[in-house]
Amino acid sequence: MRILHVLDSGGMYGAEVMLLHLMAAQEELGLTPILASIGEIGMPDKAVEVEARKRGLTVQPFRMRAGFNLAGALHLLGWAREQGVQVLHSHGYKGNILLGMLPRRLRRLPLVVTVHGWTWTGGLSRMMVYEWLDALCLRRAQAVAIVNSVMRSHPRLQAIAGHRLHVINNGIPLADTDKESSEPPLGQEILDSVGQGTSIVALGRLSEEKGLLFLIRAVGELVAMGRDVCLVILGEGPQRPELEQLVEQLGLSARVRMPGFVDDGTRFLSCFSIFALPSLTEGLPMVLLEAMEAGLPIVASRVGGIPEVLDHGQCGLLVPAGEVAPLRDALLTLVENSEQAKIRVQRARARVRAQYSSEAMAQRYLTVYQQIMNEFQGACSL
């Protein structure tokens, strides 16, 4: 079976990591996944394209005019047919709109959409228009996959018939626990620059929905209480100036480091003492699964699929989103009670291995592909 995964990537974030894990697992199942990477005309290779090729995965870039682009959609669809693609699988609003706006009889290929989550938008904006179009196009997909059960109640999914909506957990490849890591000590180099105390790490896009302002304030209060802690935030994004201003304002320049985007930063998670995920909104964050597998004590917001993944607090501490005091107190608990943290770490690693493997994710998607191919062929023959 040949599957064309369609993505307009803005960087190596959760959706990109999930997709590359899925494609690798699909190859293990004997399938032929292809990454159709959308971008604007003249755009150089994207990070996801580089990383996919590095992993030996098949990539086909598509460069086209931005916005509502019927010609671009038809070009992508024509290429897919020439390559014998049997299923289209979109991973974001651009692919959803390009493929979903085409009538089924013109498309002649079944469409699966994975909703990874939603970005934080406020007020009128172009992004809100895309989100509205996205919601309309989701209704035209043969199957919509969501990454946690909480998303079922989201207003954008209310028009999706129940039999077309599937909950499929994200998954990660399970590490060989007997194999020693040979990764360069980049994480340790960063730690050396912030001191020898308890190290807290956050990893992701520097944007409002990630809740990093609250994390910096919580760390500031721990420092004010005399605790020897430091914070490293791995990632890049539009909120960097605001975060840097807060660090300076709180006098935390010696305690907080933001080294920017780090290629496959999850490799370095085990260098740190605690993992923090203070997001205001999430789907099922890949980095959370990676932190569980890496054996880090976890503090995370009670949003999206996070409580389900952490077994409602059995595998990590859960706090309300957007509040400093509960986040500070949870971090303090892990700093001062290492034995309690170890118990949750053991539960977390066992849970991620039992329920969140990329192999299980790929098998679940295969079942959906097979189901919609049969239904789609029957409908088109009427």
TrEMBL record:
<dbReference type="GO" id="GO:0016757">
    <property type="term" value="F:glycosyltransferase activity"/>
</dbReference>
<feature type="domain" description="Glycosyltransferase subfamily 4-like N-terminal">
    <location>
        <begin position="14"/>
        <end position="174"/>
    </location>
</feature>
<keyword id="KW-0808">Transferase</keyword>
<dbReference type="Pfam" id="PF13439">
    <property type="entry name" value="Glyco_transf_4"/>
</dbReference>
<dbReference type="Pfam" id="PF13692">
    <property type="entry name" value="Glyco_trans_1_4"/>
</dbReference>
<protein>
    <submittedName>
        <fullName>Glycosyltransferase</fullName>
    </submittedName>
</protein>
<dbReference type="InterPro" id="IPR028098">
    <property type="entry name" value="Glyco_trans_4-like_N"/>
</dbReference>
